[in-house]
Design goal:
2 domains, about 140 residues, mainly alpha, about 5% strand, single chain, 4 helices
Length: about 140
């Protein structure tokens, strides 16, 4: 029997969000790679002012071919992790513990209330309590 989370299969829901986070992670790696490439080009421009263009070409290790290679490796690694997760998730049966979820909600709410009470003493909230981003 498949466990449902609303109208969505719980396992599919969890897997989707894990894969989405992995995708966001490897997109960040691509952005970092682009930043590094930009810094490399800036450094080459500075070197070009003091040296010959042949020298600059010889030390340029981060050309378009290298960038494309690194980008492909990042995407391949991320996609491989997502495929592995899918294979592992096929072996799992997921179930929500509604009692534990209720306890977690109560704990977080009490922590937020305690935090905002201490802030109220400092006068930051003008005598109101802030729960989940709303002033009460």
């Amino acid at each position: 029997m498949k466990r449902k989370f609303g109208d969505i299969d719980l396992k599919e829901y969890v897997l989707f969000h894990i894969q989405r986070n992995i995708t966001n992670l490897y997109k960040r790696y691509i952005v970092i790679t682009e930043d590094l490439r930009g810094e490399h080009k800036t450094m080459l421009a500075k070197v070009a002012k003091e040296n010959t263009s042949e020298f600059v070409e010889n030390i340029d290790y981060f050309d378009d071919r290298k960038y494309t290679y690194i980008r492909k490796k990042i995407l391949d690694a991320g996609n491989e992790v997502c495929r592995d997760l899918e294979r592992h998730f096929e072996l799992l049966e997921l179930e929500l513990d509604s009692e534990e979820i209720g306890n977690l909600k109560k704990f977080k709410l009490s922590e937020v209330a305690r935090y905002t009470k201490s802030m109220r003493l400092e006068g930051d909230l003008h005598g109101k309590q802030k729960i989940k981003g709303k002033l009460i």
